[in-house]
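Homework-ish question, so no full write-ups if that breaks the rules, but can someone show me the predicted structure for this set?
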Amino acid sequence: AQTVTQSQPEMSVQEAETVTLSCTYDTSENNYYLFWYKQPPSRQMILVIRQEAYKQQNATENRFSVNFQKAAKSFSLKISDSQLGDTAMYFCAFMKHTGTASKLTFGTGTRLQVTL
Amino acid sequence: DGGITQSPKYLFRKEGQNVTLSCEQNLNHDAMYWYRQDPGQGLRLIYYSQIVNDFQKGDIAEGYSVSREKKESFPLTVTSAQKNPTAFYLCASSIGAVSSGANVLTFGAGSRLTVL
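A: Not a homework solution, just the prediction itself:
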């Protein structure tokens, strides 16, 4: 079974600064996907970024980028130019390549607070 | 707008009662999922369905039941056998075909169940 570990329960960053959230995972699979989801106070889960394990290039989405280290099984999220709207719970998630269902295994989350 | 609708948003139940949470999607997605969220534990998979009239147990299916009679609907029943049902419940869906979009889950806004 896969496990996902987020070792930072809470983090804080000042507006316009950069913050990195950590995530490690354990799997024996070779083909898989990794995700970061954001859950703001509204509790709506929002996809932030996705990474395919077979791709060496790190994924980026505007101010969000990842540092994917496959050998180390590490998948950190970097948020640049932090904004107040980035305040949320951030979940790292793992998905192995499967048929038609996309089952996610989630970490326990990191609560990020962006301050003025 | 396409999306996932969960109802009710808040639900209260007395011990010993069954309760059904509704999940409807108009995204034409084949696969649907139910997750449970507890503080400090991330999201855990209860049940999932890849096609109509078919569903599989997830990691914590005991005390829950589902049905998938229509492609757009995947209701979850929390039975009296569920020992600790108070939680936040999230429904999700994905395209289901093996394609670049198959592994992205879209989530509903969630339902908060409280047992009195």
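Now go work out the reasoning yourself. Hint: Chain A is about 0% helix and 50% strand.
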